[in-house]
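User: Let's play a game. I give you a shape written as tokens, and you guess the letters that built it. Ready? Here's round one.
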């Protein structure tokens, strides 16, 4: 018989919101919900489920290895409930919430669950690939934006002739010619990489390469789609009047061009679906662009048959109340409200326009419905929509109803900085781009930089203790339904490339220049980051080109073209392997997570479910070190061949040879080289590629 301890063994205590510890994890009202709590057998404790203002003594259920599992059940009510645990030992009482064990209750960190809040199963742990279309792959030369096709933000449009030319400091009207045909030509590459979801940056008609300034939400831009009818004239040098940009006007307003581009996109989505990949669109509904047909500041639609006058053109426009004007100065009223004062980004005026509100709800449903059948929306600056928090929440409640009515399996994923919890209660967004609980903490820990490469913090660089405290604090703001589908990115179109961040150098394109983005980089840190990304809760999201070593400072340098013909195949093969492990080892996709060690330039953690366990350890020092990992906390038993190392990454490459390791007295001992990550697995798993 094991000796009875006076104090509770903290490291053995565990519960969370995954299916292993709450069944069902995403209950409906009226469901019988069973909650489990784990403690060490030697603790001989009693455990209480603190459910709102109720206290339920948990029954001792079953034992397994070192642990005993306590169970309690309740009927799920309507709305949201919170709960935590009280653990009573011989000489002390502890509490347990999302932070782990604590000495006193804190409702802020209680577990939460909302009746009926479910996120799509296909999105849980899904591998997402983000494509900035203009820079991904060019296949159709006939739809390229031409030099002087139109005027935008102090200059004419520019066609970049050399695919490998690096972006300039001002890049918004420079086009490399990437298009949807280019994406279609690379679908097999994406499938071979292991991609399950394609997330497109905006695709709707727009004068910029990034397309966050929509001209027409109802149509795919023919410049990345199909141009059936061409013609018209380019602007003469020095001309700024876009009403004379007849070539651009024909290309972006001709009904046949728009219909053909929409049809092509529908076919692309269908082909992606046939290949097992989903498609998410980028929705920019806080603001549109000055070219937008509802405003028409540029005179694109003013004299086109079949189009109404824009609100800038006429006070009698049917779109007059789509925007907020401060003066009555028609025709050509430029006193409209611009987002952050930008006159190229007119703020949409939902509060005063039920017509606009209805139009956007229609658009929200349109693109997730036949014939397009997209699988969800990523929402740009979603917390900014409207003019008050109250209206913002109303808007997203209605948006969710519109989208889910059209496609119940679609995901709603928002860009958000700060606490997302007010939107993540089952009635608005499904989840967010995971900045605070993923990109920021791992970047600080591995590189000492924030996500733009604008600031270096030596106190956070390599600080494993801070890393776990910070990331778990921010993860606590999510319900499990949202956390399991959160978009976990290392890079994207708004921030510096992660590989550039590994140089721990503050800089931007304007201050450091292009070449410096590739100096002092550390591939060992990039690979460690990707191992973390593929083994941490959420949906790992690859920004196009990261898998082949593209570098770049923050916007616009992060939008370099994919280097087709000059790929880093060793890095691509590494990505293929770690993605395959993420998809085949069940605990890496939907299992529980438990920190094991957080210290000086070293973190270790485990993932586990009822089938298998995985252990990850990352050393960011440029020296070899040894570590003893307390894998007993994951339920891994002792044995001479208890775990298998399936990956070791380092600066010059990676080793995927299988090597068995013993576990003695609950510990796995390993040696780590400089800038190294190790991945171990145990239990029932299919590790074959």
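Assistant: Ready! My guess for every position:
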């Amino acid at each position: 018989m094991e000796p009875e301890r006076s104090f509770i063994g903290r490291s053995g205590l565990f519960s969370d919101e995954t299916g292993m510890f709450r069944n069902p994890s995403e209950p409906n009202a009226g469901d019988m919900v069973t909650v489990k709590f784990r403690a060490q057998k030697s603790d001989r404790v009693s455990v209480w489920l603190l459910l709102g203002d109720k206290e339920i003594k948990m029954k001792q259920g079953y034992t397994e290895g070192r642990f005993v599992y306590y169970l309690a059940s309740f009927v799920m009510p309507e709305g949201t409930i919170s709960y935590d645990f009280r653990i009573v030992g011989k000489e002390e009482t502890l509490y347990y919430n999302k932070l782990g064990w604590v000495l006193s209750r804190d409702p802020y960190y209680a577990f939460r669950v909302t009746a009926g809040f479910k996120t799509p199963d296909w999105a849980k742990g899904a591998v997402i690939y983000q494509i900035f279309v203009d820079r991904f792959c060019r296949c159709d030369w006939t739809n390229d934006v031409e030099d002087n096709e139109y005027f935008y933000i102090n200059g004419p449009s520019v066609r970049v002739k050399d695919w490998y030319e690096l972006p300039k400091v001002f890049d918004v009207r420079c086009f490399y010619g990437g298009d949807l045909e280019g994406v279609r030509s690379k679908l097999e590459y994406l499938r071979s990489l292991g991609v399950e979801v394609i997330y497109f940056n905006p695709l709707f008609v727009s004068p910029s390469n990034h397309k966050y300034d929509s001209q027409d939400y109802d149509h795919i831009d023919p410049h990345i789609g199909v141009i059936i009818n061409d013609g018209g004239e380019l602007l003469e040098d020095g001309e700024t009047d876009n009403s004379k940009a007849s070539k651009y006007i024909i290309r972006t307003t001709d009904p046949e061009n728009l219909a053909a581009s929409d049809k092509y996109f529908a076919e692309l989505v269908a082909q992606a679906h046939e290949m097992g990949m989903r498609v998410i669109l980028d929705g920019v509904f806080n603001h549109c662009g000055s070219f937008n047909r509802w405003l028409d500041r540029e005179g694109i639609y003013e004299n086109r048959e079949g189009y109404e006058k824009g609100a800038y053109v006429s006070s009698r426009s049917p779109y007059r109340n789509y925007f907020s004007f401060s003066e009555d100065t028609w025709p050509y009223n430029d006193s409209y409200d611009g987002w952050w004062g930008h006159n190229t980004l007119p703020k949409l005026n939902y509060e005063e326009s039920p017509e606009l509100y209805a139009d956007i709800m229609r658009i929200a449903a349109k693109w997730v419905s036949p014939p397009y059948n997209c699988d969800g929306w990523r929402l740009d600056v979603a917390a900014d929509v409207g003019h008050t928090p109250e209206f913002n929440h109303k808007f997203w409640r209605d948006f969710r109803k519109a989208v889910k009515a059209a496609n119940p399996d679609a995901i709603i994923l928002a860009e958000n900085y700060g606490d997302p919890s007010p939107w993540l209660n089952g009635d608005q967004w499904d989840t967010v781009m995971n900045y605070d609980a993923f990109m920021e903490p791992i970047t600080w820990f591995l590189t000492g930089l924030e996500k733009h490469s604008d600031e270096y913090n030596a106190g956070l660089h390599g600080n494993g203790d801070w890393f776990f405290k910070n990331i778990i604090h921010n993860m606590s703001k999510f319900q499990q339904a949202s956390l399991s589908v959160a978009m976990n990115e290392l890079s994207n179109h708004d921030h510096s490339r992660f590989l550039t961040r590994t140089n721990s150098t503050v800089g931007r394109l304007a201050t450091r220049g292009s070449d410096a983005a590739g100096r002092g980089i550390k591939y060992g840190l990039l690979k460690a980051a990707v191992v973390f990304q593929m083994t941490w809760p959420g949906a790992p999201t690859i920004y196009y080109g990261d898998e082949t070593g593209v570098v770049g400072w923050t916007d616009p340098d992060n939008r370099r073209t994919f280097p087709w013909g000059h790929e880093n195949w060793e890095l691509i093969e590494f990505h293929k392997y770690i993605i395959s492990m993420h998809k085949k080892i069940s605990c890496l996709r939907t299992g529980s997570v438990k920190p094991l060690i957080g210290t000086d330039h070293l973190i270790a953690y485990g993932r586990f479910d009822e089938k298998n366990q995985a252990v990850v350890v990352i050393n960011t020092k440029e020296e070899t070190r040894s570590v003893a990992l307390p894998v007993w906390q994951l339920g891994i038993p002792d044995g001479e061949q208890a775990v298998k190392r399936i990956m070791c990454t380092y600066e010059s490459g990676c080793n995927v040879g299988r090597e068995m390791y013993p576990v003695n007295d609950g510990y796995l001992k390993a040696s780590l080289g400089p800038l190294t990550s190790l991945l171990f697995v145990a239990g029932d798993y299919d590790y074959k590629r």
